[in-house]
Amino acid sequence: MTPRQNRTRDRAERGIPEATVARLPVYLRALHGLQDRGVATVSSEELAGAAGVNSAKLRKDLSHLGSYGTRGVGYEVEYLVYQISRELGLTQDWVVAIIGLGNLGRALAGYGGFASRGFRVAGLLDADDAIVGERISGMTVEHVDRLEDVIAERSVSIAVIATPAGAAQGVCDRVVAAGVTSVLNFAPVVLSVPDGVDVRKVDLSIELQILAFHEQRKAGGPELPDGDGPPGPAHYVEAVDA
Ligand SMILES: NC(=O)c1ccc[n+]([C@@H]2O[C@H](COP(=O)([O-])OP(=O)(O)OC[C@H]3O[C@@H](n4cnc5c(N)ncnc54)[C@H](O)[C@@H]3O)[C@@H](O)[C@H]2O)c1
């Protein structure tokens, strides 16, 4: 069982509501702000104010983590940061492999934002001998024949698929068989995976089409009966944000 599955099971057993889980990053951001100002302890009222929730809800949320604070003192900021980070899985690195190092894979490999969010790219794999051996962002591209070995040797937990559509399902089947349970798919194809595997699909052309739809509406274009159009852009950025 992967650490993420373990944590999901623990959470379910301890009964932490998803709404609470969704507020934890907000508390964490507020706590980081307090840490930056050198604040060591914080009352539930202060923290609730900084996070924009009411203090009863905050106390209830934190009680799910086993954190009750000390009467008259409040919560110890550093320890609460640790507890929330642990709950969210931020105390460990998530190891990522990118498969397909064409235009998109290269851009992703060079994206600096992964590391600061706890994601470490540890494998770049491609099927093209002309690309294998190339250095991209300080890493050497390996042949996709080594996919299973790379996943096992480096404990890869997230696979990013940036191959052409026709190759994506085959790559997906291999990463899943090798034990990966999280896949971020950029190929324009719906991947079939067994239960217990999470796939997030990013499709920029769908995002653009939705924006085009809303642009058309703003410009007074064809009116559709309620419910016939796609949801607002905010509903769809979810996959990109994940
Ligand atoms: N999701 C989006 O918003 C978005 C945007 C652009 C492109 N795409 C899609 O992302 C994918 C990559 O786009 P691109 O422009 O980088 O394409 P590309 O052709 O430049 O790169 C694809 C790479 O995959 C490699 N490849 C092919 N089969 C493979 C296999 N079995 N195993 C490993 N590597 C393999 C190729 O050698 C190539 O280097 C395409 O499916 C494309 O449609 C998605």
Describe the structure.
With 242 residues, this protein is α/β, with parallel strands linked by helices. It has twelve helices and ten strands. The strands form three sheets. Strands 7-4-3-8-9-10 form a six-stranded parallel beta sheet, sandwiched between helices. The protein has a two-stranded antiparallel sheet with strand order 1-2. A two-stranded antiparallel ribbon has the order 5-6. The protein is globular and about 65 Å long. The site of nicotinamide-adenine-dinucleotide has 26 residues, from helix 6, strand 4 and helix 9. Nicotinamide-adenine-dinucleotide binds next to helix 6, strand 4 and helix 9. Modulates transcription in response to changes in cellular NADH/NAD(+) redox state. It holds the Pfam family CoA_binding.
